[in-house]
Amino acid sequence: MSTVANDVIIVTSSLTRDMTGKEDSHRGPAIRALCKIIDASMMQSVKRYMKQAIVDKLPSVASAALTSSVHLMRQGPAVVKRWVNEVQEAVNNDNIMVQYHALGLLYQIRRTNKHAIRKLIVKFSKAGLRSPYAYCFLIRIAANLINEEGEGTDSPMYDFIDSCLRHKNEMVIYEAASTIVSLKCVTPNELSSAVNVLQLFISSPKPVLRYAAVRTLNKVAIQYPAAVTACNVDLETLITDSNRSIATLAITTLLKPGVDRLMKQISSFSSEISDQFKTVVVDAIKSLCQKFPRKHTVLMTFLSNMLREEGGYEYKKAIVNTIISIVEENPEAKEAEEELKAEKPIHELQDGEPFRSRGLVLEGFPSTEDKTVNMIDNQLLPNLVIQLDVESKDILPKRMEQ
Q: What is the pTM assigned to this prediction?
């Protein structure tokens, strides 16, 4: 309500007393509240208190002052920039969160000066930082410079990121590996160091590391499928991982380079996951068939079996659309599609092809509308026997024609 209040000065005075008082539990919240209600015209009156709070020995007070100063940069950047000496002192704080927040504020102060940012990265990469969060932040700053300036892998910024692959903290190592595989300047041959690190994380006992590693490898496999082939054996062990999200990502990653021998394992696995992850698997199969059209027989058989299993509408719709897409894009798959009797009542295989309707013989078709709708929603035609090459639509139930 500070924007509509008439006596903000009273609240400001009270908060100022709290942030400089002896009650440590009140100081941090008072700083946050004060920076929330003041405007640019009032910043001069509190700058002395803010500079003192930034270098305060109490970590909660220093962090509150640093994070609040980041927000104050939007209102009075010129005022906050004068606090740079105190901010640099806070970067050397032993507390990892204070160091991280101080580095973030220092970057905001110097972000318009690319040369100053480079010096910042070089300085702290040599001096060393206690905070793994600060290292991750430096990695992201360096990556932005590389992408914006169009630098290559021979730049000092890339060398810093690559050196972080050998850091003792797992968070920093993963951040460096994830950053390297996303850089525009990296070639498939230069991905090996990052992929090797991610391969080690795949075998980690920590689920969060396994998930992070396989998710990143999944992204790499989209653009550079050959780069992750060395991880295939390790990825196959994740298919039976107790975490279904990890197992799903492992399967879709293996499918991208064309490991279609996993189809039997996927069949047993797919019954244990939700429709959302099943749809992800279907999309991966679609991509695989586009890359390797000669494998359509195996893939179409697998999709047909999935279509006959239980599942929701969106999941079954994804399967049908995938089968149709394969048939349209691959002429050799048409014959296989007819043999599999894919469940699509009426569909033109190609534009300009003579119209050919498909009749359906319904076994035990319900007599009432409610039962019919219920059957369609729950089973989605898995029990329908499709008869191809029938010239008349007379045997197609009127309910299905609508």
A: 0.69
Q: Which two tokens stand for residue 287?
A: 């991509």
Q: Summarize pLDDT for 50-71 with one digit per residue, the tens.
A: 999 999 999 999 999 999 999 9
Q: Is residue 85 part of a domain?
A: yes
User: Cα-flanking dihedrals φ and ψ of residue 359, to 5°?
Assistant: -85, 155
Q: Do the beta carbons of residue 87 and residue 109 sit within 8 Å?
A: yes
- Answer yes or no: are the C-beta atoms of 84 and 102 closer than 8 Å: no
Domain assignment present for residue 336? The answer is: no
How far apart are the C-alpha atoms of 171 and 283, rounded to whole Å?
Answer: 31
The CATH number of whichever domain residue 86 belongs to comes to: 1.25.10.10
Q: Is residue 222 part of a domain?
A: no
pLDDT digit string, tens, across residues 4-38: 445 566 677 788 888 888 888 888 899 998 888 88
Domain that holds residue 38: 1-112
Q: In the chain, how many domains are there? A: 1
Query: What distances in angstroms separate CA 275 from CA 1, 164, 317, 319, 397, one per listed residue?
Result: 46, 39, 11, 11, 29
